[in-house]
Structure formats: structure tokens, C-alpha cells
Design a protein that fits this description.
alpha+beta, Thiol Ester Dehydrase, Chain A, five-stranded antiparallel sheet, three-stranded antiparallel sheet, 3 helices, 23% helix
């Protein structure tokens, strides 16, 4: 399993009239964590795009447990629990001051950017992933 985490400070623009982070923003925090995870393992998303492979989102879920407010420091934890095939799932937990405020997951398909058809992930990516399992 691969586990990473990042810290992210909530912007004022992310909050609603009540001063609470808008629910759609959590998916942006998931994306920030996911991008960071790929960079930390040594295979940034742009590396995939250079091989004409994209990872479009095909499913997303978020369970809201608590709230975040302007200027809070979020800790976004990401988990890749399985070796990817033609798709991959990444799980997330978001914390404020050590308190779990959201959980969720995203599922992505590997797609050839030219043909716009599902493909297997790059072999060098899979070999890299396997070193974590």
C-alpha cells in the first residue's frame, strides 16, 4: 500500500457565506493529495501525459463528517491500496487539528490521449508501484 499526506491551508475563496468550506472543494483537496502522491513516488501526472496517457475521473465519493473553515490547515492523507490495472482507486482522509472531517475515494481509468480508449498503465509505472507493495 502507498500512503502519503500533504498539508493545505483553506483559502477564503473556498468558503461559503457561513464561513465553512464548500462541499465541492473537498474533491479539489483530493486532487491536490493525488498529484502529490504521484510526485512523491516518482511518477508525476505530467510524466504520464508525456506518454499520451491520461487518468480521467470515472467515479468519486466523499463522506462529510466535520467541517473546515477559512485558514484551517488540512491534512490530506492518500492511500493506494491495490496495484492499478486499467483503472485505479485512491482513498482519502482529511483532517483538521487531528480530527477526521471527511473520507472518500476516486476511481480513474487509464486512457490513451490520442485514441481516447482505455489502456493498461505504463509498464514502468506499474514496476514502480510494485516496489511499494
Amino acid at each position: 500500500m502507498i500512503t502519503t499526506e500533504i498539508s493545505y491551508r483553506v483559502l477564503y475563496a473556498h468558503t461559503d457565506k457561513m464561513g465553512i468550506v464548500n462541499n465541492a472543494r473537498y474533491f479539489e483537496y483530493f486532487e491536490a493529495g493525488r498529484g502529490d502522491m504521484l510526485r512523491k513516488i516518482g511518477y508525476a501526472y505530467k510524466d504520464m501525459e508525456q506518454k499520451n496517457i491520461a487518468l480521467p475521473l470515472i467515479e468519486a465519493y466523499c463522506k462529510y463528517i466535520g467541517t473546515a473553515k477559512y485558514d484551517d490547515i488540512l491534512v490530506v492523507k492518500c492511500f493506494m491500496k491495490n496495484i492499478p490495472t486499467v483503472k485505479t482507486r485512491i482513498d482519502y482522509e482529511i483532517f483538521v487539528d487531528g480530527k477526521l472531517i471527511a473520507t472518500g475515494f476516486t476511481v480513474h481509468s487509464f486512457v490513451d490521449l490520442i485514441k481516447i480508449k482505455p489502456v493498461r498503465p505504463p509498464k514502468d509505472f506499474i514496476e514502480l508501484i510494485k516496489t511499494y507493495f
